[in-house]
Write a structure and sequence with these properties.
- The protein has 259 residues and is α/β, with parallel strands linked by helices.
- The protein contains 10 helices and 8 strands.
- It has helices at 21-37, 39-42, 57-64, 89-95, 105-111, 115-127, 144-165, 189-204, 225-228, 244-258; strands spanning 9-14, 46-51, 69-72, 99-102, 131-136, 172-175, 213-216, 234-237.
- It has an 8-stranded parallel β-sheet.
- The radius of gyration is 17 Å and the shape is globular.
């Protein structure tokens, strides 16, 4: 649960690798215009973050300025050195990013990222002053109790190096059941609510990481937030936010749910 005085909802969008740079620039300008005029942003009900591809980060920073946070989709476990093709958390922060995605299911499945790598990247984010968007979720459809146990263990594992090193900060836990990513619809509202309520309770007990929150992803889109608002701190959107007007709809839903 966000601390008192913090935005009620955190809404994030990751572009993955769907957009060209030109389309990203257009999207960012359109969404920035929507966010700049939206009362949910203006009154602090919603905090918005956007995660484009690396090459589009500077353009996104220019477009959003004070109306949304900008982040990167991945980072290196290391801060500098001979790591061709990697991008460090220190450089991401230097550009002005505030968040960075860590441990997405596609990174785990396609690029072999282990729990140990995810933990190292989470610590790299925190020690560089970035809020990790820590993606967790059960691999197969199961019971809510089993999902809670699995996901709680994933969070604990990811945060252990930071806890040991004394690196603190806000952690944005993005609960995305792997089996729901890319599906035609998300998990049921009842299932999401049960799992996210338990994860929020767990995350709220992590005194080393104050202000940490739990948001839901995994085929999240318009129409869902109103059903799960009491159980989550926000949503993490993908392809269902490709249309800027969909972002407006979700901001409207957040404003309604917060009243």
């Amino acid at each position: 649960m966000p601390p008192a005085g913090s935005p009620r909802f955190l809404i994030g969008v990751s572009h993955k690798m769907y957009f060209s740079h030109a389309r990203t620039v257009d999207w960012c300008r359109d969404v920035a215009a929507i966010a700049r005029d939206h009362p949910a942003i203006a009154d602090g009900t919603v905090e918005l973050f956007v995660i484009p591809t690396y090459l589009s980060v500077p353009a996104a920073l220019e477009a959003f300025q004070s109306v949304a946070l900008v982040g990167a989709q991945d980072l290196s476990t290391e801060d500098s050195g001979a790591y061709t093709g990697e991008v460090s958390g220190s450089e991401i922060a230097e550009l002005g990013c505030r968040v960075v995605e860590v441990g997405h299911a596609e990174r785990r499945r396609l690029f072999g990222e282990t729990d140990e790598i995810v933990a190292s990247k989470t610590d790299a984010a925190l020690r560089n002053g970035l809020d990790p968007v820590l993606c967790i979720g059960e691999a197969v459809r199961t019971t809510a109790d089993d999902a809670i146990a699995d996901c709680t263990a994933q969070i604990a594992s990811a945060l252990e190096p930071s806890r040991t090193a004394g690196h603190h900060g806000r952690v944005i836990v993005a609960y995305e059941p792997h089996w729901a990513i890319g599906a035609s619809e998300p998990a049921s509202a009842e299932y999401i609510g049960t799992v996210c309520s338990a994860l929020r309770e767990y995350v709220g007990s992590l005194s080393d990481f104050p202000g940490s929150v739990v948001i839901y992803g995994g085929s999240a889109g318009p129409g869902l937030l109103g059903e799960i608002a009491d159980s989550v701190d926000g949503m993490f959107l993908g392809r269902f936010a490709h249309d800027p007007e969909a972002v407006r709809v979700i901001l409207d839903e957040a404003a309604d749910a917060a009243t």
